[in-house]
Amino acid sequence: MGKQGHLRLPIITLVVGVILLLLKFLAWWWTNSNAILTDALESIINIVAGVFALYSLSLSLKPKDEDHPYGHGKIEFLSAGFEGALILIAGLVILFKSIWDISHPHEVTGLDVGMMITALSGMINYMMGFFLVRQGKGMGSITLEASGKHLKSDAYSSIGLILGLAIVYFTDWDVLDNIIAIIFGAIIMFTGYGLLRRSVAGIMDEADEELIRAFVHDINKNRIDDWIDLHNVRMIQYGHNLHLDCHLTLPWYYDTRQSHDSMKQFEETVKELSDRPIELFVHVDPCEPISCQICQKQDCKKRLESFESRINWTFENVTANQKHIHK
Question: Which residue did the predictor score with more confidence, 75 or 295?
Answer without folding.
Answer: 295
